[in-house]
Amino acid sequence: MPTKQPFTPAGVTAKTTELYALSDSLLAAEADAVASDFRSWVNANFTLSTPQSAFLAGINDYAARYYGSQCSVAFIARLTVALSVGVEPFPPSIKWVLSESTLVVETNSAGDLKTTGSLTFKIEYTV
User: Fold this and answer.
1) What's the pLDDT tens digit per position in 33-84?
2) Share of the chain above pLDDT 90, in %
3) What 8-state DSSP symbol labels residue 93?
4) Are 114 and 102 in contact (CB under 8 A)?
């Protein structure tokens, strides 16, 4: 059973450190799991507050699949995955999660794979 980390910038760093200590085959299994069901993987690996859980459940399906695919690519190459959280203004505003990626995936006809870059999830608020 995975260790649950808080869903904070430090918690995301701790989770990737934990993941990247795994063998290649166990890490590949985690990469497959996050790609196949991003929401379930996040729930299994992070301690979420009630509002965070509700937000995760309500995100767009396409975005969830995209986020899972991005995480999978980053995990396999053991690249940096980070979380940045903006300050929520008062009164409460609209919360947005966006991913910023410099991921570059290259392959050749021999099947060699080269992946570079990083992935950052940003939580921002608009009024």
Assistant:
1) 999 999 999 999 999 999 999 999 999 999 999 999 999 999 999 999 999 9
2) 87
3) -
4) no
Four-CA torsion 64, 67, 73, 78, nearest 10 degrees: -120
One-letter identity of residue 53: S
pTM (two decimals): 0.92
Structure tokens at 55: 């937000």
Torsion (CA) 88, 15, 75, 121 in degrees, nearest 10: 0
Under a CB-based contact definition with an 8 Å cutoff, are residues 109 and 40 in contact?
no
Whole-angstrom Cα distance, residue 101 to residue 119? 4
Domain with 51 in it: 5-126
The answer to whether the Cα torsion of 84, 70, 117, 27 is positive or negative is: positive
Q: Which of 66, 65, 114, 125 is nearest to 90 (CA)?
A: 125
Give the CA radius of gyration of the chain: 15
Looking at the 3D structure of the chain, how many domains does it have? Answer: 1
Per-residue tokens: 63: 């975005």
CB contact burial 95-105 (16+ within 10 A = b; e otherwise): eebeeebebee
